[in-house]
Amino acid sequence: MSSLALDRMRPEDLDEVLAIEGASFTMPWSRGAFLYEMQQNRVARCWVARDNDAHVVGYLCLWEVADELHITNVAVRPDARRQGIARGLLGTVLDDARARAFKMVVLEVRPSNTHARALYESFGFRVVGRRRGYYYDTGEDALVMEIGLSTAPGNQAAR
Fold first, then answer.
1. Is 64 a catalytic residue?
2. Catalytic residue among 108, 134, 135, 140
3. Prediction pTM value
């Protein structure tokens, strides 16, 4: 991800973000959902990764609640996948969370999303629970994964 820039998501990014969202999820977030996260949700932070032409190639949204982060959304443009963009986004967020003394990061993922699960496991996330029927489009459960930052090794983004 060395040739990518990481920035806060802005409303003018949403056309590109929504194209990635629609290509990535069967239950995509709406423009209004992203705007709410950026403009009204005081605990939400949304980040974008840009290529050399300043186009959005990936994004990550999270909530900062007390001493925990909850990752709510991660996606990469289909033609830019498997190039380390999600790894770079996640690694940067985890390094920043450690530096700011957050204690834990939590997320939900579909059991069928093997690529995402492998990415999270490579950072040290582990499955700690299951939310039955979490995804209402298919009724699929969600795996709850977490990583404790106080005991996690530093900067695993370089893996």
1. no
2. 108
3. 0.88
**136 carries an active-site annotation:** no
Cα separation of the two ends of the chain: 12
Q: What's the CA gap between 74 and 61, in Å, rounded?
A: 7
CA dist., res. 99 & res. 111, Å (int): 30
Give DSSP secondary structure letters for the chain: -TT-EEEE--GGGHHHHHHHHHHH-SSPPPHHHHHHHHHT-TTEEEEEEE-TTS-EEEEEEEEEETTEEEEEEEEE-GGGTTSSHHHHHHHHHHHHHHHTT--EEEEEE-TT-HHHHHHHHHTT-EEEEEEEEEETTTTEEEEEEEEETTTSPS-GGG-
| pLDDT tens digit sequence for 8-40 | 999 999 999 999 999 999 889 999 999 999 999
